[in-house]
Amino acid sequence: MANNTSALLQVDGFPLALDRLYHPETHMWIALSGPASAPTARIGIDALGVETSGTLAQLSLPDTGTGLAAGRPFGQLEAAKFVGPLVSPVAGTVTAVNHAVAADPGLAERDPYGEGWLIEARLTGPVCEQTGLLADPEEIRQWFAAKLADYRLKGVIAG
Amino acid sequence: MPEELRIIDFGRVSPLRSQTTWHAVAYGVSEGAPATLSFARPSHPYVCVGYHRDLAEVDRDYCRSNGLPVYRRMVGGGPVYLDSGQLFFQITLPAAAVSPSRVEALRVLLAPAVAAFRAAGVDARLDDDGEICVGDRKICGHGAGQIEDAVVVCGNLIERFDHERAAGVLAVPDKEQRAQTLDLMRRYVSATAVDPERFRASLTTAYAAALGLAPVSGSLTSAERARLAKLDERFSSEEWLAGPARTPSARPRQVKVRAGVWTFSAVSGPAWVAASVVRDVVTAARLRAPGLNGRTEAAQRAITGVSLAQVPDVLAAFGEPGRQLAAAFAAADGKRV
Question: Closest to B145 (Cβ–Cβ): which among A55, A82, A103?
């Protein structure tokens, strides 16, 4: 699957790629390829998700062939001795795992939309059946900016 | 009426139950049980490894010969030695009640523990690295995790600490790193002489106040007891102990003693280094590289007291062996110990 992170927008100091879908609650992104009826998705975590995690120490990712259920964990992330789930935004089957990011989680910090991708999956249905995803670039930009402002207001991330 | 903070004191329990009890609570809170502050003291010594960590970081031969069982927990951190000289506590809340920032969540959920230490007469503080300290000495180990829809933060009151065993259970590639790790543990990890009953009462008061909840003595629900039986089985299995599938780390063997204080042992070609690092400064080093020709001690002295960032420049004065040693240093990453 080709990387396409050339269209990175800077939103108040945080990069945002507009060429993909986002799950607004989990900060996971989904980059689609292949036919609309049976798309393949590359999945990663966005820059705000990385920021709120802290310095990533460990990542555990599933094996290829593992089933994904929307809203259920597909792996775990550890930062600051805090282990938490990586929640799948879509249903499907894992077809590839980024072993480079598993060996060096810092990749997800340095290049969250590119080399820091986590897994690829064959989706079980058209993406329109995957609920709760943001697809419109302007909607994504507004959501990201609002989330960033909210996190700063609440002290979740540094101002 | 404020909502309830359930208080469960599991008392003195087996090593296995000193883990599985509070994991069962986390599943219970995830399914709607009230926020819970729990306590447990292991009846016998054992070793516990953090969720992600490689079992190879534990010296299994040492553990076997000392009768120490090994379990894997669902929260973070490295392999640790636990015994009856440590009183463990866990605060467990619905995930929705916790900040999405892990660092902030830990700061908020460890602050009551600091207050409890202070109420018990200990001059504790939460330092900039998120460790509970007196001065620069860590006095409380902690770890955290999200289990289903509950967040749990664990900590301990270290009444007595067996530094030798704590270092002994760690698998390290050479005796030099073990010696340096033990030195740093003795320097940076301390027990605190606090009456555990007083600490338990202070902790209950502090968490109840911080969370705006009313402490109520409680016990496991029937669903939690059923989960406990399953967790006993899971945590006793070799499959669980082996941990999640992992890609081998590119990093050398690094041991964190407390935040900002760590040792590592690394090889680059024919060069070998074992070093201690405190706040990014090398505080001890043993080096080996062909070609140093009697300058080994001089190289060790030259980098002691030097920041990690400056080590390559300092070692450059030692020619090709110095460059090989610098490459070994470069493999270490203190941010991700």
Answer: A82
CB A119 within 8 A of CB A89: no
What is the ipTM, given to two decimal places? 0.92
> Comparing C-alpha atoms, which of A34, A59, A57, A66 is closest to residue A44?
A59
Strands A82-87 and A73-79: antiparallel
In chain A, which residue's Cα lies nearest the Cα of B105? A156
pLDDT at A124: 87
Note whether B100 and B144 are same-domain residues. Answer: yes
Banded model confidence at residue A39, pLDDT cuts 50, 70, 90? confident
B144 touches chain A (CB under 8 A): yes
Q: H or E stretch including B276? A: strand B271-278
Residue of B nearest to A99 (CA): B247
Measure CB to CB from residue A54 to each of B102, B145, B146 and give the nearest one.
Answer: B102
Q: Which residues of B touch A61 (CB under 8 A)?
A: 245
Residue of B nearest to A73 (CA): B148
Determine contact, residues A147/A51, Cβ cutoff 8 Å.
Answer: no
Among B102, B263, B94, smallest CA distance to B177 is for B263
What whole-number percentage of chain B has pLDDT above 90? 93
> Nearest-5° angle of CA A118, CA A119, CA A121?
155
Looking at the fold, whether B204 and B285 belong to one and the same domain comes out as: no
* Least Cα separation, residue B230 to chain A (angstroms): 20
Distance CA A137, CA B240 (A): 43
B308 located within any domain:
yes
Name the DSSP letter for residue B180: H
Q: How would residue A132 be classed by pLDDT, with cut points 50, 70 and 90? A: confident
Is A57 within 8 Å of chain B by CB?
yes
Residue B41 and residue B121 share a domain: yes
Residue B12 falls inside a structural domain: yes
Please say if the pLDDT value at position B175 is more than 50: yes
The number of domains in chain B is: 2
Residue with tokens 């900040």: B99
CB-based contact (8 Å) between A69 and chain B? no
Cα angle B187, B180, B122; round to 5: 15
Q: What pLDDT digit, counting tens, does each position of B63-114 carry? A: 999 999 999 999 999 999 999 999 999 999 999 999 999 999 999 999 999 9
Determine the average pLDDT of the residues in B227-237: 98
What is the per-residue pLDDT for B207? Answer: 98
Whole-number Å distance between alpha carbons of A75 and B273: 34
User: How far is Cα A104 from Cα B112, in angstroms, rounded to an integer?
Assistant: 34
Beta-carbon neighbour count of residue B214 at 10 Å? 12
Q: Do residues A157 and A52 touch, judged by C-beta distance below 8 A?
A: yes
Check CB contact of B221 with chain A, cutoff 8 Å: no
